[in-house]
Specification:
The two termini are 25 Å apart. Helix 1 (18-25) packs across helix 3. The protein is built from six helices and nine strands. Strands 1, 2, 3, 4, 5, 6, 7, 8 and 9 form a nine-stranded mixed beta sheet that branches. It is an alpha+beta fold. The chain has one domain (3-173): Aminopeptidase (3-Layer(aba) Sandwich), CATH 3.40.630.
Length: 174
């Protein structure tokens, strides 16, 4: 399944995405917020993906203009509750250009229109102000103050709290 936006093609991950994926997940900027990966760990990840069941709500974002894979975006569905968990990671060279918001809106719309997801949740480190802005201001998700979680961030050497957000199908589609 492919989705298309004004500037992006959203499609399942392919073996040819390995180098672009490595570029994203090996960068210091991205490494502040997600686990940094070595080339070897990316190769193992791709090998594992070859033999796993494809998530119908998981995509890579390919910039139409360049044909370059610039990010990953997906919603992991809990089949018991029909609640999806949104996650995304974009190449730092493409931050602050609206690509993540554009991809999120398309994937969230697809998830809700599929009839398999009734609510989407997302979280991010509290100091990831760009993600907070995307989730709150661009995607109009509501912050859930009842959830709390903190982890030790090895990159910063500090305990870091998470912020949690959610939106229902009805809220998103209005």
């Amino acid at each position: 399944m492919e989705l298309e936006t004004q500037r992006l093609i959203l499609r399942p991950m392919q073996q040819t995405d390995l180098e672009d994926f490595y570029e994203i997940f090996s960068s210091d900027e991205v490494g502040r917020f997600v686990h940094k990966m070595t080339h070897e760990s990316v190769e193992k990840y791709f090998e594992k993906k070859k033999h796993s069941v494809q998530n119908p709500f998981s995509f890579v974002a390919v910039e139409k203009e360049s044909g370059k894979m610039i990010g990953t975006i997906g919603v992991k569905r809990d089949s018991q509750t029909n609640v999806g968990s949104l996650s995304y990671v974009f190449n730092a060279k493409y931050w602050n250009k609206g690509f993540c918001t554009e991809a999120c809106k398309a994937v969230m719309n697809f998830c809700f229109e599929s009839g398999q997801i009734d609510k989407i949740e997302a979280d991010c480190f509290e100091d990831n102000l760009a993600s907070v802005k995307i989730l709150q201001d661009k995607l109009h998700m509501t912050e859930n103050f009842q959830k709390t979680k903190a982890v030790f961030n090895e990159v910063t050497g500090k305990m870091t709290k998470f912020r949690f957000f959610e939106i229902t199908k009805r809220q998103f589609l209005k």
